[in-house]
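Work Package 4 report. The design task specified in the project plan requires that, given a folded chain encoded as structure tokens, an amino acid be chosen for each position. We show below one input record used in the internal validation round.
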């Protein structure tokens, strides 16, 4: 069963221990921004992001760390609310600079790892037909390769949902928490000792 408390991977444990010792340090964020021209169906975009969070349990996982243990708890799916920011009232020449300032502020805003909300999404309107979509994820839940998966799925889901079609993506058979459980089972005893001796 995927609901309830589960073990974390070694990488997640390292991240949690660092957070426990030095809280609210935003250096572990993964971000991506895309410029979009044309009309945006914000409802379909929110539905697409919500479906990604439903599909990928890691994006709705709460993490808890004490000196004795680190655990993760998979939370129920939730609706993603897209934060909208409109820069059209600003002078045209300064809009991209204002977006970059906003992106830097967002990148430095820490995630609460115990909340289960590890994905932040903003749609910044630069002009009547021009937007920038900004996604931020804590590194405990994603890396650069993972962001590629998110972008690919977002594109597929948005095309479907904006045309009132169902999701064409198949359900995932393995989640990151499954990998964490497998890793903990594999990396122990004599096998782990050999790896530690090698390194």
């Amino acid at each position: 069963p995927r609901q309830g408390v589960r073990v974390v991977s070694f990488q997640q444990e390292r991240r949690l221990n660092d957070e426990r010792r030095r809280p609210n340090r935003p250096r572990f964020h993964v971000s991506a921004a895309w410029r979009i021209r044309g009309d945006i169906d914000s409802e379909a975009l929110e539905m697409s992001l919500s479906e990604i969070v439903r599909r990928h349990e890691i994006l709705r996982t709460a993490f808890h760390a004490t000196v004795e243990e680190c655990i993760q708890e998979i939370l129920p799916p939730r609706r993603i609310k897209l934060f909208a920011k409109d820069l059209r009232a600003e002078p045209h020449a300064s809009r991209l600079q204002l977006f970059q300032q906003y992106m830097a502020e967002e990148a430095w805003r820490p995630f609460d790892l115990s909340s289960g909300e590890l994905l932040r999404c903003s749609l910044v309107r630069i002009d009547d037909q021009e937007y920038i979509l900004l996604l931020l994820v804590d590194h405990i839940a994603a890396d650069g390769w993972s962001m590629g998966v998110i972008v690919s799925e977002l594109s597929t889901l948005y095309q479907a949902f904006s045309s009132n079609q169902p999701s064409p993506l198949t359900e995932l058979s393995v989640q990151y928490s499954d990998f964490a459980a497998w890793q903990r089972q594999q990396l122990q005893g004599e096998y782990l000792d050999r790896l530690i001796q090698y390194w």
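DSSP finds six helices and seven strands in the chain. Validation will be extended to a larger panel in the next phase.
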